[in-house]
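wait is this the right file?? whatever heres the structure
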């Protein structure tokens, strides 16, 4: 689970989202700060991906853009309560929280 850490989302609460995620993540979920996904106006943003098993590169593209790979879920407009729900439902039980899933193409609908 990556929580973005650019200045805009940090001002918008991503530090609290990250702290909540770190405090509540189960042992099978690594929580780290991603970079900026270029979606600051929709943040704080959380990207959840299944572990591919490789060593994480601290400058990987995955930390700066949505890859749209199978198993990737983009959650937008996150707060500590929402990330808690993602951890409890999606990470623990595989239940994608569709009402929290972001879609940059639909940002004008909100
Ligand atoms: S800092 Fe969150 S997407 Fe840019």
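ok assuming it is, sequence goes like this
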């Amino acid at each position: 689970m990556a929580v973005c850490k650019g200045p805009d989302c940090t001002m918008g609460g991503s530090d609290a989202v990250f702290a909540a995620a770190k405090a509540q993540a189960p042992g099978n979920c690594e929580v780290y700060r991603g970079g900026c996904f270029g979606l600051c106006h929709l943040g704080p943003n959380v990207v959840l991906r299944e572990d591919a098993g490789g060593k994480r590169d601290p400058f990987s593209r995955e930390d700066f853009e949505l890859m749209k790979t199978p198993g990737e879920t983009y959650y937008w407009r996150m707060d500590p309560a929402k990330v808690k729900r993602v951890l409890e439902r999606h990470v623990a039980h595989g239940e994608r929280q569709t009402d929290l899933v972001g879609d940059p193409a639909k940002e004008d609908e909100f």
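Residues 4, 6, 8-9, 36-37, 39-40, 43, 45 surround FE2/S2 (inorganic) cluster (CB under 6 Å). so i think its the right one actually
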